[in-house]
From TrEMBL:
CDD domains from the UniProt entry: NAT_SF
Taxonomy, superkingdom: Bacteria
Record keywords, A-Z: Acyltransferase, Transferase
Alphabetized InterPro entries for the sequence: Acyl_CoA_acyltransferase (IPR016181), Bact_Acetyltransf (IPR050832), DUF3335 (IPR021770), GNAT_dom (IPR000182)
Name of the protein in its database record: GNAT family N-acetyltransferase
Keyword Transcription regulation among UniProt keywords: no
Residue ranges constituting the N-acetyltransferase domain according to the UniProt record: 4-150
Keyword flag Zinc: no
GO MF entry, a single one: acyltransferase activity, transferring groups other than amino-acyl groups
Organism listed in the record: Alcanivorax profundi
Length: 364
């Protein structure tokens, strides 16, 4: 093993990486185009081990922007060099890269029928936290493992919250509400129900495209479906009017806001005109409630868009979110129980010039 050296991959490694991938895998291969992309990407670490100019293996780690999460996307050791502990050397490098990038967790997927790899990961302190059925091209399941890199493992208060992917660009709120309904009432997710929820809760207009969902609108829709709901908002008056310039659109948004406020009052849905603090969020999670929080996506994808996420747990360092909208180069697994450092989350949950902070708290 001492004869092998570890270094970052270079564009000149492209051909060798492609050949190595062909030798190591019969399916689920990374393409030459993919390797070229990862060699250029800012939020990725691609490392190789080599001896006398010959590649013995590689590890690819992706960093999820705006979070404290890294993912071991792929790792491979040339069959001709196995038995020389190159896998462990690459794992060391992957963990060190994630650590240097200040990630709290490194996550990975492994085939359920690969006991050697599973044994290696568990030996290194990785803990099983999920199953992804039918994950690989041959329909084999994947086991999901993670390792806490910076601190000792914490006892996260975690709700069993099923994840739901939004089916349109504007139904993040309804998708999050479907998660709550699945957790609290065992109601399966349904695209028709998602769209109906949006029709009930939408503001109609936003800066571009269809309008998102008003917190009171989501609370009313949840109440109608048998959940206890309350709204927390740090400001009174119409929400989201700053996101449009047209006077007629502002009037529509204002009309809907007033309707939602009257409906909440008539249905005795509590509306608290104050900030929902981190302490309140921890308390709600401890009581088994599901909290939907409006965030700005700026720190996730560089766009200042309002976006609803569901909170799946918390610990001393992080809040964990279910994000219903996989971004570019993400798979659904990347959007579940995403750890966001508490100080970062406080920054994310402010939207717009008015620094709107709002949440919908749901119970069974």
């Amino acid at each position: 093993m001492n004869s092998f050296s570890l270094r970052p991959a270079l564009p000149s490694d492209l051909d060798a990486l492609t050949r190595l991938e062909q030798r190591c895998f019969s399916s689920d291969r990374l393409s030459r185009r993919s390797f070229r992309k990862w060699l250029k990407r800012q939020h990725a670490g691609l490392m190789v081990v080599e001896r006398e100019g010959e590649l013995g293996g590689y590890a690819l780690v992706l960093l999820q922007p705006g979070t404290r999460l890294a993912r071991l996307y792929s790792i491979a050791v040339d069959p001709g060099f196995r038995g020389q502990r190159l896998g462990e050397q690459l794992m060391d490098a992957a963990e060190e890269y994630a650590h240097q990038e200040r990630r709290l967790y490194l996550r990975l997927e492994v085939r359920k029928d690969n006991p050697a790899a599973i044994a290696l990961y568990e030996k290194r302190g990785y803990r099983l936290f999920g199953l992804a059925p039918d994950y690989y091209e041959d329909h084999q399941d994947a086991l999901r493992y993670q390792k806490r890199l910076h601190y000792q493992p914490a006892n996260a208060e975690q709700i069993h919250l099923p994840w739901v992917q939004q089916s349109t660009p504007f139904t993040c709120g309804p998708a999050c509400l479907l998660m709550a309904l699945a957790a609290l009432r065992n109601q399966p997710a349904d695209t028709t129900e998602e769209l109906l929820l949006w029709r009930e809760a939408t503001t109609i207009y936003m800066t571009a495209g269809h309008g998102g969902c008003h917190p009171m609108g989501l609370a009313i829709a949840a109440h109608k479906r048998g959940l206890n709901a309350s709204v927390w908002c740090n400001q009174q008056g119409p929400l989201f009017v700053d996101s449009v310039r047209d006077t007629d659109k502002k009037r529509v948004i204002t009309t809907l806001h007033e309707h939602f406020a009257r409906s909440c009052k008539a249905q005795q849905i509590p509306v608290h005109y104050q900030d929902f603090t981190a302490y309140d969020l921890d308390s709600a999670i401890a009581q088994g409630k599901v909290v939907l929080v409006l965030i700005s996506t700026w720190r996730l994808d560089g766009r200042k868009a309002p976006h609803w996420v569901a909170i799946s747990g918390s610990d001393e360092e992080c809040f964990y979110i279910h994000d219903p909208d996989p971004g570019e180069d993400q798979v659904p697994l990347d959007c579940q129980h995403v750890p966001i450092a508490r100080e970062k989350f406080e920054q994310m949950r402010k939207y717009g010039q008015a620094k709107l902070r709002t949440a919908v708290v749901l119970g069974g």
